[in-house]
Amino acid sequence: MDTFNDVWKEVLNICKAQVAQPLYNIWFAPLEFIKFENDTVVFLVSADYKKSIIQDKFSGIIKDGFEQVLGFPVEIDIIVDKTISDNSSDKKENKSEPENKESQNAFSGFTFDNFIVGKSNTFAYNVARGVCEEPGTKYNPLLIYGRSGLGKTHLMLAVYNKLKAQNPDAILIYTTGENFMNELVKDIYNKNMDHFHNKYRNVDALLMDDIQIIQRGESVQEEFFHTFNVLQQAGKQIVITSDIPPKEMAGLDERLRTRFEQGVIADIQPPDIDTRKAIIKRKCEQLGIRLSDSVTEYIAQKIKNNIRQLEGTVKKIDAMSKAYGTPVTIEQVQNIIKDITTDNQPISVITDKIMERIAQTYNVTLADIKSDKRQAKITLARQISMYVIKEVTDLTLKEIGEIFDKNHSTVLHSLKCAEEKMQESASVKLLVINTIKEFQEK
Q1: Which residues, listed in sequence order, are joined to residue 206 by a DSSP beta bridge?
Q2: How far does CA 265 lie from the centroid of its chain?
């Protein structure tokens, strides 16, 4: 490792395996490394409450990480500089909530008119429009789910923009499950729950992305449960999105699951090839470029499951075309997209993504699945992971065992247990089928 920043990156990877992803995103990733001297690592944060929580809850994990990487123990010192609050993680919070003119402009491009409708998303599109026609009544709550990059956030922000256009005085909040949790922790620490309640319970519509994040914390679920009830009883609109349906959220409180399922649940599937071509053509129109039918066909054939990847590929083609002053060739397009298609990723990346997908469902971590822990949900997540990896990859049972540090017979036993659980539980069977389909299509 060339610099101490490289050391910090290694430490972060170790910490990431020790805590849930939302906690890592809130408390570890934003830490700003300042210096290392006299065996003391100095970090900068933007608020006293952040310093206190990191010192009380997570300093041990950070110290252990440094000792693993450096081979000797270190001390942790955290400096508070409140002047950086607008330039660190707090900026992310503000950006995700269109409560000011600057933020509204950032989200103004997401409309129903520029959303490409196809067989895979027609229902979600129609009910989202229906929300705007009768907010708080007909489709309340509305939950849109589907894997990343399929347009869930686009539809949610289209609802936001339409409601705001219809009633400029309406109080609307768009946020994420992670930000909701982050704000809750902050206001609990500052003993300022009145601020939290006033913000989230006195709105005309609450739109929350990535609701699955809240299943990792009991207190945040409890708070969202009461917020949900207050808004629904007042006839206020609730729109939420998730990567998975409520029935697959193993860590979700049953009271919340029931309320989500009482509303309208709309899924967005990967777009068919005609829709993918339409998305490519629309992006070309926006950028003012033209692609041949053969290039459009090739991109649509190679990138099947992520709209953002389709749009990103077109942007790269535009940049390359301008840089060289000539139309791109199929060979150049191949080079552009080869790094983002699964068939070019190392097998270890694919297997980790499979395990992360299943870990999310069972409210465990990737490190838990790879460990020797024997808690029921961790064991089940490990068994299902082995089963899906066997179905999706060409790995032998011995090679699968090496991923989990298990022998051949243990893998065989795990596969048998997974099959039995699929026969006993429809939700487990659905999870396995959907996960296999998700990774086979990539």
Answers
A1: 173, 238
A2: 19
CA-to-CA distance for 376 and 144, rounded, in angstroms? 30
Are the CB atoms for 283 and 314 separated by under 8 Å? Answer: yes
Nearest to 414 by CA among 371, 372, 385: 385
Query: Token pair of 247, please?
Result: 């029935």
How confident is the model over 227-256, as pLDDT tens digits? 999 999 999 999 999 988 888 787 788 899
Backbone angles phi, psi at 203, to 5 degrees: -130, 160
Which residues 6+ apart lie within 8 Å of 100 measured at CB?
Answer: 94
pLDDT in tens, 52-85: 888 888 888 999 888 888 878 888 989 887 665 4
For residue 266, the model assigns a pLDDT of: 94
Q: What count of residues does the chain have?
A: 442
Place of tokens 């179905």: 391
Angle at 267 between CA 376 and CA 269, to 5 degrees: 100
**Does residue 66 sit in helix, strand or coil?**
helix
Question: Could you tell me the two tokens for 399?
Answer: 């090679």
Q: What is the DSSP string of 406-422?
A: --HHHHHHHHHHHHHHH
* CA distances, 373 to each of 24, 252, 358, 376, 414 (Å): 21, 22, 16, 9, 14
DSSP bridge pairs for 172? 205
Is this structure's pTM higher than 0.70? no
Secondary structure class of 213 (helix, strand, coil)? helix
pLDDT at 344: 52
Contacts with 201 (C-beta within 8 Å, 6 or more apart), sequence order: 227, 230, 231
Assess whether pLDDT exceeds 80 at residue 12: yes
